[in-house]
Specification:
Layout: E1 3-7, H1 11-22, E2 26-30, E3 42-44, E4 50-52, H2 63-72, E5 76-78, E6 87-89, H3 96-112, H4 118-125, H5 129-143, H6 158-161, E7 168-170, H7 175-185, E8 189-190, E9 195-201, E10 204-209, E11 212-216, E12 218-221, H8 225-230, E13 232-234, H9 239-246, E14 249-250, E15 253-259, E16 267-271, E17 276-280, E18 290-296, H10 298-303, H11 311-320, E19 332-335, E20 347-348, E21 367-369, H12 382-402
Parallel strand pairs: 1-2, 1-12, 2-8, 6-16, 9-13, 12-21
Antiparallel strand pairs: 3-4, 5-7, 9-10, 10-11, 14-20, 15-18, 15-19, 16-17, 17-18
Helix pairs in contact: 1-7, 1-12, 2-7, 2-12, 3-4
The protein binds flavin-adenine dinucleotide.
Length: 403
C-alpha cells in the first residue's frame, strides 16, 4: 500500500490526508502542536462564549468549506453581519454607489497594471479622499499588510470587500472542521510531533522527527511558509522554489475578544483612521455578549499595543463603540507573529489565474506542497487551505499513478 506522510494538521494537511485515506492510501499526519486546526483555533471564554482566535469569517464562494462541513457533519451559521460592510467611525458619509463606481475604476487600472504601487493607483483614480482612505483602510485590514507596501493587484479585492452577503461561521467553532477531519483519520494523526527534515531518493521519503524517522512513498508538506523555509530538505529544494518561498510576505494580525455585560445585536464598526474594526455576533453562542476585534498589519497591531495585552486596544474599542458595556477583566488577545508554528497570520500573495502553474504548488520529486499559500486565488483563507489540500491529494495520486 502507498504510504503518505502529511506534515501539518491544519485544514490543508487534514483535507489532503482525508482525501488520500479515503482513496485507500496509508496516511500518517505529523502535527507539531497539541491540537489540530493550526491557524483555525476556536475557544470558549469563561463566560461560555465561543470565540475564534484565528480564521473566522466564511464569506462567498467557500465551496470547499461547505463540502468539508457537510462531510464532517458541521453546520454553517450566519453571523448576522455582512463581512465587511461595516459602519464607519467617524462616519465620513460615503455614498455606497459612488464607492462602488470608484472600486470599479480602481479595479480596471489594477487589472491593466497589477505591479504598480497600490497607493499610486488609489491616489490617481479615487478623487474623494474619504473613499480613498476607506479603500486603503479596507485593503490594509484584509491583507493585514501596510497598503504602502502593496501592489495594485491587491486592489482587485476592493469590490469583493464591499459585497453585502452575510458571513458565516461553523456552529460550535470553525475548528470543528479540523476536529471532524481528524476524527475520520483516527490514530493516524500524531500530535506534538514536529517534523525537522525531509529527505528523498528513488526509493522513497524519510521525515525526521525527534522520535525518529517516518518512512513514506510521498510526503505532503502543509506548514506555513516561515516553517517551510525552516525545514531541511535533502536534496535541497530547487533554487527557484527557495527563491519563490523567500519572496512570500507574511501578514501580521492580532485579535481581541472582550466579554460584554449586556447583550448586543449583531453589528460591525470600523475605525477608518485606526484601520481596525470590531463586531458582535450571536455566533458567540451566548447571545451576543462578546465583542471581537481585528487588527491587521504591523503598524495597526503596534498602535494598539496588542503584544502588551488588551488595555490600549480596549480603550480604542470604548471610543469606537461607546454603547458596549465591556468587561475587560475577561479580555483575550491573540497574536500570531509570536506563535512558533505560524510565525505570522497568512501569506500576502496576489490572486493568480488558477490554471497558471505555481512554483509553490508544484511537486518536487516525491514532495507535494499544500497550505493556503499554495492556493492561487484563495491564499490567506480557510477556503484556500481546504482547496490546496484537495489539490495536493490529487497531485499525490497523480505521482503514485505515474511511478
Ligand atoms: C488571525 C487570523 C485570522 C484569520 N481570519 C480568516 C478569516 O476570517 N477567514 C478566512 O477564510 N481565513 C482567515 N484566516 C486564514 C486561515 O485561518 C488560514 O489561511 C488557514 O487556516 C491556513 O491553513 P493551513 O492548513 O494552510 O495552515 P495552518 O492552519 O497553519 O496549518 C499548518 C499546521 O502545520 C503545523 N506545523 C508547522 N510546522 C510544523 C512542523 N515542522 N512539523 C509538523 N507540524 C508543523 C502547524 O502547527 C499547523 O497546525 C485567518 C488567519 C489568522 C491567523
Amino acid at each position: 500500500m502507498t504510504r503518505v506522510c502529511v506534515i501539518g494538521a491544519g485544514l490543508a494537511g487534514l483535507a489532503a490526508a482525508d482525501a488520500l485515506a479515503t482513496g485507500g492510501l496509508e496516511v500518517n499526519v505529523l502535527e507539531a502542536r497539541n491540537r489540530v486546526g493550526g491557524r483555525v483555533w476556536s475557544e470558549r471564554l469563561e463566560t461560555g462564549a465561543l470565540i475564534e482566535r484565528g480564521g473566522e469569517f466564511l464569506t462567498y464562494g467557500y465551496d470547499a468549506t461547505e463540502r468539508v462541513a457537510a462531510l464532517v457533519g458541521c453546520e454553517l451559521v450566519g453571523m448576522g453581519i455582512r463581512y465587511p460592510d461595516r459602519r464607519l467611525h467617524p462616519d465620513p458619509g460615503i455614498d455606497r454607489d459612488a464607492a462602488l463606481l470608484a472600486a470599479a475604476a480602481v479595479e480596471a487600472v489594477a487589472t491593466a497594471d497589477p505591479e504598480r504601487a497600490a497607493i499610486d493607483v488609489l491616489d490617481a483614480e479615487v478623487a474623494d479622499p474619504a473613499i480613498r482612505e476607506l479603500f486603503a483602510s479596507r485593503i490594509q485590514s484584509a491583507t493585514a499588510h501596510p497598503i504602502g507596501d502593496l501592489e495594485a493587484g491587491f486592489l482587485l479585492g476592493v469590490s469583493y470587500l464591499m459585497k453585502n452577503g452575510e458571513c458565516r461561521r461553523i456552529r460550535g467553532g470553525n475548528q470543528e472542521l479540523a476536529r471532524g477531519l481528524a476524527a475520520r483519520l483516527g490514530d493516524s494523526v500524531h500530535l506534538r510531533t514536529p517534523a525537522n527534515a525531509v529527505s528523498q531518493d528513488a526509493s522513497g521519503v524519510q521525515v525526521a522527527t525527534a522520535d525518529g524517522q517516518v518512512a513514506a512513498d510521498v510526503v505532503v508538506v502543509a506548514v506555513p511558509v516561515p516553517l517551510l523555509r525552516a525545514l531541511t530538505f535533502d536534496p535541497p529544494l530547487p533554487g527557484a522554489v527557495v527563491d519563490a518561498l523567500a519572496g512570500v510576505r507574511m501578514s501580521v494580525a492580532a485579535k481581541l475578544a472582550v466579554p460584554l455585560r449586556a447583550a448586543a445585536a449583531a453589528d460591525a464598526v470600523m475605525s477608518v483612521p485606526g484601520r481596525y474594526w470590531a463586531y458582535t455576533t450571536p455566533c458567540d453562542e451566548i447571545g451576543g455578549r462578546t465583542v471581537g476585534s481585528w487588527a491587521g498589519s504591523t503598524p495597526v497591531v503596534a498602535a494598539l499595543q496588542a503584544t502588551n495585552g488588551p488595555a490600549t486596544w480596549i480603550a480604542g474599542i470604548r471610543e469606537l463603540w461607546p454603547e458596549l458595556d465591556l468587561d475587560e477583566s475577561g479580555a483575550v488577545v491573540t497574536t500570531w507573529l509570536d506563535d512558533p508554528w505560524a510565525q505570522g497570520a497568512y501569506s500576502v500573495l496576489m490572486s493568480r489565474d488558477p490554471d497558471e502553474p505555481s512554483l509553490l504548488a508544484t511537486p518536487v520529486g516525491r514532495i507535494v506542497f499544500a497550505g493556503e499559500h499554495t492556493s492561487p486565488d484563495w491564499s490567506g483563507t480557510i477556503e484556500g487551505a481546504l482547496r490546496s489540500g484537495e489539490r495536493a491529494a490529487a497531485d499525490v495520486l497523480q505521482l503514485v499513478r505515474s511511478s
